[in-house]
Amino acid sequence: MQKPTPTNKEYSVKADAFLVSKTDPKGRITYCNPPFIEIVGLSEQEILGKPHNLIRHPDMPRVIFKLLWDKISHKEEIFAYVKNMSYDGGYYWVYANVTASLDKSGNIVGYYSVRRKPNSKAIDIIKPLYEKLLSIEKNTGMESAEKYLNELLKEKGVSYEEFSNNLQRL
C-alpha cells in the first residue's frame, strides 16, 4: 500500500470522538475503532495488519516519535500532540495517549492509543515548535532537535508530558 501525498485538506476530530487503535509489539495495527477508520479513510480490512506509521504525516518531527517510543518501550505512558495523515492526503491533529499493553507477566504484547480532539490553542503553540524541530532535524539531525526540545522543557521546568497536559488545559 503506497503512502498518500500530503495535501492541505484539514480534518477535525469530533469533540466527542475517541480514535482508538491497538498494535502488536512491532507497531502493526491489530484493532481500530470506527472513528479511527472514518478519519483515516480506509476500510478496517485495509488498515489491520499495516504498520501504524501508515498515518504518519511528514510534518511530524522524528524526535517526538523517539520520545514516544522511549516512553512506551519502558512501559510508561505518554501524552503527545500528533499530526496524522488521512489516506487521501489530508491531515488531522490529535492529542494522543499511548501506553504499552502488558501480559500477566508484565511483558509488552502491544501498544494501545486513544486519541482525541486537541485544544486549538495548544496546536497554535505546537505547530511552530514542531516546525522548528523538523527544521533542526533536517539541518543538523535528530540529536540536535532532541537537545533543543530538552533545553526548551528545562527552561520551562517541565517534562514533555507536563508541557503537553498544560497546553491541553489552555
Give the SSE map.
Blueprint lengths: L18 E5 L5 E4 L1 H7 L3 H4 L14 H11 L5 E8 L5 E12 L5 E9 L3 H21 L1 H15 L3 H9 L2
Antiparallel strand pairs: 1-2, 1-5, 3-4, 4-5
Helix pairs in contact: 4-5
Short description:
The chain is α+β, with helices and mostly antiparallel strands. Helix content is 39%, strand content 22%.
Structural class determined from secondary elements:
alpha+beta
Give the termini distance in whole angstroms.
39 Å
Order of helices and strands: EEHHHEEEHHH
CATH topology: Beta-Lactamase
Helix content: 25-40%
Spatial strand sequence of the major β-sheet: 2-1-5-4-3
What oligomeric arrangement do these chains adopt?
Answer: single chain
Q: What is the approximate shape? A: globular
Return Rg in Å: 16 Å
Can you tell me the CATH architecture? 2-Layer Sandwich
CATH class division:
Alpha Beta
Mean pLDDT: 95
Instruction: List low-pLDDT spans.
Output: none
Can you summarize the main beta sheet?
5 strands, antiparallel
Q: What is the strand content?
A: 15-25%
- Number of helical runs? 6
- Report the CATH superfamily: PAS domain
Describe the structure.
By secondary structure, this protein is α+β, with helices and mostly antiparallel strands. It has six helices and five strands; from the N terminus they run E-E-H-H-H-E-E-E-H-H-H. The chain has a five-stranded antiparallel sheet. The radius of gyration is 16 Å and the shape is globular.
Keywords summarizing the entry:
globular, Beta-Lactamase, five-stranded antiparallel β-sheet
